[in-house]
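Write out this protein's structure.
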Amino acid sequence: MPEDTIKVRVKRSDEHEFKSTDLDRYICGGLSDQFETGGVDVKKLQLYLDLEVRDESLFVYNNIYSGLGGHPLSTQESVLTLISCGFDSFVASYMTKRHGAKPHILFLN
């Protein structure tokens, strides 16, 4: 891994005496000490480590698959949107539509 740029991202759950960013820096520093790296570069990286700390276990992810996004499939049904004279109900209707729900509009004056 000579002159490769690296990025480490750590997520943690439960209570620990360290922060995720502390562990990021510690692992990046250890990799930089052991190997000749080109430093840390978030934009143009060659090595990306995705780690998760749960309780006393460390999980290393080697493949991350993108999902569809939005709400879960079981919730993508028709919804009733109550529209009033204010703009906030239009924004709420737009946001539910953007996440995959099909809004039916009921206007109240």
